[in-house]
Design a protein that fits this description.
Strand content: under 5%
Shape: globular
Strand order of the largest sheet: 1-2
Organism: Penicillium antarcticum
CATH superfamily: Amino acid/polyamine transporter I
Membrane topology: Multi-pass membrane protein
Mean pLDDT: 82
Family: Belongs to the amino acid/polyamine transporter 2 family.
Keywords: Membrane, Transmembrane, Transmembrane helix
CATH topology: Amino acid/polyamine transporter I
Low-confidence stretches: 24-32, 344-348
Helix content: over 70%
InterPro entries: AA_transpt_TM
CATH class: Mainly Alpha
Largest sheet: 2 strands, antiparallel
Order of helices and strands: HEEHHHHHHHHHHH
Length: 348
């Protein structure tokens, strides 16, 4: 065998080694793509927990916030005043936006994290994981309860108190529980697409109504011209001021659920863009709705705000809002059952 044949054999062997290496690398890439740090192997047979797209992420985040707190922001402005209320809203929005951004960065660096309980376990061990799991499970339970209460109020308004409030609360709980049993956020996304426009239409109906009506529903009924008594700067007691701030804070109560949303994204690197779109849109809507409704209603603004324009408008607005409130209850209840509940039981 001459030297050229030896070189030819060596080249063939090197080529085969390169091909084997490329094949092994391709297999590893496929395995990595199909493996998730939280959900393990993702196959066609099982549920796809990584199926939330970029737009769906923004809609889910927006719907997890818009729906409960926005209905009480105008009354918070009544306690704080127009300018302090707007400042508090913008500050809380900035804080929650930053915390949401940190959630995304943390998730990219620690793919095995699904919720705040996992983050606590990573930083401080299993006791912190169980403690935070229990705390946030309780937190989501109370948020879910608020959604159930809001939905029962809506059903009462539409039906003119057809049955007792407890009965409507039971119906609301069943609806929220049924929706939250859907296993993945990817399948819940289409509900958010329905719920978000519904709640926005309901809010716009009330906002337009209070602007064109002579006076809010709770204002004195007389022949004298009525002028809004809104305040640029309020003079609340400590309790009233803190209640107003808490109402605004509750409007951003969906932020802890962003951990679960980014965990189920197809491409978590798009999370920050979705977050900025969500927070910019949510903050703008909150600010405009709160300022307009409070400007026209003054101290006679109702809480929830959908009752500010009278009985007929209240029924119409709640008719639009009910699907949105159902979706809100579904999302926040799903957050509890999917992330924190499994750690809350051992902690207790």
């Amino acid at each position: 065998m001459d030297i050229s044949e030896v070189h030819s054999l060596e080249e063939d062997r090197d080529r085969k080694d390169d091909e084997n290496f490329d094949n092994e690398l391709a297999v590893k890439r496929i395995q990595t793509a199909n493996h998730d740090g939280v959900f393990g192997e993702i196959t066609e047979k099982g549920p796809n927990y990584r199926n939330v797209g970029f737009v769906g992420t923004a809609v889910l985040m927006a719907k997890s916030q818009i729906g409960l707190g926005i209905l009480s922001i105008p009354s918070a402005f009544n306690a704080l005043g127009m300018v302090p209320g707007a400042i508090c809203l913008l500050l809380i929005s900035a804080i929650t936006t930053w915390s949401g951004y940190v959630i995304g960065i943390f998730k990219l660096n620690h793919r095995e994290v699904y919720g705040i309980d996992d983050a606590g376990g990573l930083m401080a061990g299993p006791i912190a994981r169980w403690f935070l799991g229990a705390v946030f499970c309780i937190y989501w339970i109370f948020v879910s309860a608020s959604g159930i209460l809001g939905l029962s109020i809506g059903l009462n308004a539409v039906s003119s108190h057809g049955i007792c409030t407890a009965g409507f609360a039971a119906i609301a709980a069943i609806l929220g529980f049924s929706g939250s049993s859907i296993r993945t956020l990817g399948r819940i996304t289409w509900l958010a697409w329905i719920g978000l426009p519904c709640i926005l239409v309901a809010i716009m109906v009330v906002t337009i109504a209070v602007g064109v009506q002579d006076r809010p529903a709770a204002a004195p009924k007389d022949d004298l011209p009525w002028n809004s008594d809104f305040k640029i700067v309020g003079n609340p007691t400590f309790a009233e001021g803190m209640a107003g701030i808490c109402n605004i804070l509750f409007a951003f109560s969906g932020t802890p659920g962003f951990f679960a949303i980014v965990s189920e994204m197809r491409n978590p690197r798009q999370y920050t863009k979705a977050l900025l779109i969500c927070q910019a849109g949510v903050t703008s809507i909150y600010l405009v709705i709160a300022c307009v409704v409070y400007y026209y209603c003054g101290s006679y603004v109702a809480s929830p705000a959908l009752g500010s324009a009278g009985g007929l408008v209240k029924k119409i607005s709640y008719g639009f809002a009910i699907p949105g409130l159902i979706v809100t209850s579904t999302i926040v209840t799903h957050q509890s059952t999917s992330s924190s509940a499994s750690y809350a039981v051992p902690a207790i």
